[in-house]
Amino acid sequence: MATIASSQAEQQSEQISRRRIGRPAWAASYLQATPLILILGFFFILPIAMIAVVSFWDYDFAGLYPAFLTMNYTDTLGSWVTWKTYLNTLKFTVTVWGLTLFIGFWVAYFLAFHVRRTTTQMILFLVCTVPFMTSNIIRMISWIPVLGRNGLVNSALVQMGIVPQPIEWLLYSDFAVVLAMVHLYTLFMVTPIFNTLMRIDRSLFEAARDAGASGWQILWNVVVPLAKPGMAIGSIFVVTLVMADFSTVQVMSGGQSASVALMMKNQMSLLQYPAAAANAVVLLVVVLLMVAAILRVVDIRKEL
């Protein structure tokens, strides 16, 4: 019986080795990844490649002409208006990122450590997501009757005698743009930070208290370092969204401010598609560099 069992085992091992020889081991992994590669290639890589190709084309008021010209990049990078627009966009990005990080961290911290019951945590988290069930445009426009010259804020300030006349810069200004963006994108910072904080082992806090650490020391030396992956993911969300936002800048600034995405939108409305494609490629490179800088500082693989 032992001889028969050993012979059967040898036959099975020979069959397995033959199968491995007929189909390499790495082929199975590639076959499993093929559907995802096809989807990403068709919906992600192909559109970007088409934009890169069109950015070298020539154009006029009548149409587009396939060519290989660097004119669009020369006009884009050689214009001070373009550089000023990029600086203005980066100003919005840094300001909104800092505010959303500050607000998002403390909201997530409260939900994770000061709300004890899981049911209450989920209810409060859903309350934060309720505004996102409506359109971004509607939530953005809702600030106009609040911040307008005759809006709720100005009316209240004038009636209470705090200011003699309505404040002009509350609406159609950079302040209004930043306020609307913070309102729109804070949840994208809250969610990953909250997810990271919920994974922290609470025994670390007890160990820190036993070692004599104060509440602020625990926050700075335990919570913040462990929350960095969530902060990095939220930062990537906010940075990419702000850099690509044009509707908020256009509406909340009243046309008095500019952004790269708004500049591309205006170029497309004038049928200057190759110029807009060149701006899109440059913007993509800038965003990728910013994301790469975030990933150099924080290893988000701990969160994935």
Topology (SSEs and partners):
Elements: H1 2-22, H2 25-54, E1 58-59, E2 64-65, H3 71-77, H4 80-114, H5 118-129, H6 136-141, H7 144-147, H8 152-159, H9 174-185, H10 187-198, H11 203-210, H12 215-243, H13 247-252, H14 260-269, H15 273-297
Antiparallel strand pairs: 1-2
Helix pairs in contact: 2-15, 3-15, 4-9, 4-10, 4-12, 10-12, 12-15, 14-15
N-to-C SSE string, H for helix and E for strand = HHEEHHHHHHHHHHHHH
- Mean pLDDT equals 84
DSSP strand content: under 5%
List the strand order in the largest sheet. 1-2
Give the count of helical stretches: 15
Poorly predicted runs of 5 or more residues: none
Helix-and-strand structural type: mainly alpha
Major sheet size, sense and barrel closure: 2 strands, antiparallel
Estimated helix fraction? over 70%
- Secondary structure: number of strands: 2
Radius of gyration: 27 Å
Distance between the termini: 50 Å
Shape: flat
Q: Keywords for this structure?
A:
mainly alpha; 74% helix; 304 residues; flat; two-stranded antiparallel ribbon; 15 helices
What this model shows, in words?
The chain is an all-alpha fold and 304 residues long. Helices cover 74% and strands 1% of the residues. It is built from 15 helices and 2 strands. The chain has helices at 2-22, 25-54, 71-77, 80-114, 118-129, 136-141, 144-147, 152-159, 174-185, 187-198, 203-210, 215-243, 247-252, 260-269, 273-297; strands spanning 58-59, 64-65. A two-stranded antiparallel ribbon has the order 1-2. Helix 3 (71-77) packs across helix 15 (273-297), helix 4 (80-114) packs across helix 12 (215-243) and helix 10 (187-198) crosses helix 12. The protein is flat.
